[in-house]
């Protein structure tokens, strides 16, 4: 694949050979096929435990609910329920395949990230997850969706993003290689405050950030 210059954010975009479709074949390839899958169950389990621990540390209590944006087939759901039985889970994904097959059984609704600008629910969320999503989206959609994400965030957002400075494995079809500084600036403008390990506090928990964590905001 060859990169080309892209949007005004100074990013690099990988040229897709064919339109990208998140159907069953996509998930079979990237999540189940031994030659392509990079999602080891043990690694995901540790990642979920990390996100839960961070949210509970800053909230000062056990988490009660989770919003998983761009959840795919909802691999986080089982690990979350293993850690916190009875937790309220809501997934959102733009894949019609995912929603038609798993929407009812795994609590997944149909929505793009950008639609969060207008989409609201009856509660705020102790933990919001958005893993391996934003680096495939246009800058305008990221900014729009962050508005809703921050508004619905009670505790911690785990936003896993890879940048131009990283060397990601897996699906690079449509990957947008932005600078890390672009994401930090965009998250800060949306009201998110970094607390380490790809996690961010919402404005309601600003008082819980220590001075050394606040120092990251200068970059």
UniProtKB/TrEMBL annotation:
Residues 67-153 form the Methyltransferase type domain. GO terms for biological process: methylation. Keywords: Methyltransferase, Transferase. One of its GO terms (molecular function) is methyltransferase activity. InterPro entries: Methyltransf_12, SAM-dependent_MTases_sf. It comes from the Bacteria. Pfam families: Methyltransf_12. This is Methyltransferase.
């Amino acid at each position: 694949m060859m990169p080309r210059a892209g949007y005004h954010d100074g990013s690099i975009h990988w040229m897709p050979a064919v339109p990208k479709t998140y159907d069953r074949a996509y998930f079979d390839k990237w999540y189940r096929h031994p030659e392509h899958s990079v999602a080891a169950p043990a690694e995901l389990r540790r990642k979920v435990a990390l996100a839960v621990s961070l949210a509970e540390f800053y909230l000062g209590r056990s988490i009660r609910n989770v919003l998983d944006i761009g959840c795919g087939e909802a691999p986080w759901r089982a690990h979350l329920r293993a850690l916190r039985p009875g937790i309220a889970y809501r997934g959102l994904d733009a894949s019609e395949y995912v929603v038609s097959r798993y929407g009812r059984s795994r609590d997944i609704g149909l929505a793009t990230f950008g639609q969060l600008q207008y989409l609201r629910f009856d509660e705020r969320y102790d933990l919001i997850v958005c893993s391996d999503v934003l680096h495939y989206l246009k800058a305008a959609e990221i900014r729009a969706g962050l508005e809703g994400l921050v508004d619905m965030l009670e505790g911690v957002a785990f936003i896993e993003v890879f940048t131009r400075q990283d060397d990601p494995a897996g699906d690079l079809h449509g990957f947008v290689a932005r600078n890390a500084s672009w994401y930090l600036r965009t998250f800060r403008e949306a009201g998110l405050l970094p607390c380490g390990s790809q996690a961010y506090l919402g404005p309601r928990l600003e008082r819980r950030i220590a001075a050394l964590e606040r120092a990251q905001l200068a970059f």
